[in-house]
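Long-time lurker, first post. I've been practising inverse folding by hand and with some scripts of my own, and I keep getting stuck on stretches where the structure tokens seem ambiguous. Below is the full token string for one chain I'm working on. Before anyone asks, I'm not after the true native sequence, just a reasonable design that respects the backbone. If someone could post their per-position residues I'd love to compare against what I wrote down in my notebook.
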């Protein structure tokens, strides 16, 4: 069992995929924050895997609070944060720890997607930057402005710089990265270490519509909140305006096509935008029984 790293997974009805992920993580302590509140699921996993501890909060606390809870509970030097929608080798995890020990002071260290044709888990307005040291060049380690998921943090380094718990879903990692950079921590990715990312496949397919509605509301709420918090209210309005126009267009098209779900989805998007503009707290929660 690796004594330097704890893996924290924030889950929500990921019953179908979680076993595949956990089988590849048997050499690490794993803390699962299970937002489905499924006690039976907790008992089954802890009986099956002696390296896994499942935490059932008193309610669905979302991603930011879930990550913070996992970080606080972890007793190791490093913590790897993610949702259970990835696959990474034992060798790759060990290599990340070696890099962390070598660099020492950092905000985040992350592998990259094995397939970057559609999306990357990192980026920034100024792009990526190659560090000058031979160690960084040899191991293809670059600094970036933000990293979205699957990253290692040092408990000692981040201390109280945890995730903003006003976020329930979306933009919490981007906000976390900005906060670290403002405190002069560098965020690193390494092109030498890659992992598979399955995205929305982590949640059971029967909940697809509920997931779409939840993400639609929170993406829009969180986007406006992020820009209002880190810049100013007027700038946030300019950033959310394209989303507002897009939702209106989607509503009209769905209405003309008699697409009931499309109409409802666009209304949920508008609901999230308006709620955030009115400075209401993030209150929308998925209703799964």
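-- Answer (accepted) --
I ran through it position by position. Result:
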């Amino acid at each position: 069992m690796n004594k330097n790293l704890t893996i924290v997974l924030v889950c929500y009805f990921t019953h179908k995929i979680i076993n595949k992920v956990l089988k590849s993580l048997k050499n690490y302590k794993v803390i699962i924050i299970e937002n489905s509140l499924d006690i039976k699921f907790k008992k089954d996993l802890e009986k099956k895997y002696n390296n896994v501890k499942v935490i059932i909060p008193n309610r669905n606390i979302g991603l930011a609070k879930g990550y913070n809870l996992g970080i606080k509970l972890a007793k190791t030097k490093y913590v790897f944060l993610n949702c259970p929608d990835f696959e990474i080798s034992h060798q790759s995890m060990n290599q990340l720890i070696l890099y962390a020990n070598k660099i020492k002071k950092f905000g985040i260290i992350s592998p990259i997607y094995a397939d970057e044709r559609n999306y990357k888990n990192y980026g920034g307005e100024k792009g990526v930057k190659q560090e000058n040291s031979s160690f960084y060049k040899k191991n293809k380690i670059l600094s970036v402005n933000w990293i979205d998921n699957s990253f290692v943090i040092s408990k000692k380094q981040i201390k109280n710089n945890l995730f903003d718990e006003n976020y329930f879903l979306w933009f919490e990692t981007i906000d976390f990265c900005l906060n670290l950079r403002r405190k002069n921590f560098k965020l690193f990715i390494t092109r030498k270490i890659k992992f598979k990312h399955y995205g929305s496949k982590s949640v059971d397919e029967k909940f697809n519509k509920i997931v779409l509605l939840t993400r639609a509301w929170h993406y829009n709420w969180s986007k406006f909140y992020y820009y209002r918090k880190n810049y100013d209210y007027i700038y946030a309005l300019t950033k959310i305006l394209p989303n507002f126009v897009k939702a209106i267009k989607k509503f009209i098209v769905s209405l003309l096509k008699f697409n009931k779900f499309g109409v409802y989805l666009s209304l949920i998007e508008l609901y999230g935008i308006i709620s955030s503009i009115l400075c209401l707290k993030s209150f929308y929660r998925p209703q799964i029984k």
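A couple of notes from the structure itself: The first helix runs from residue 15 to 23. The mean pLDDT is 92. Happy to go over any region you disagree with.
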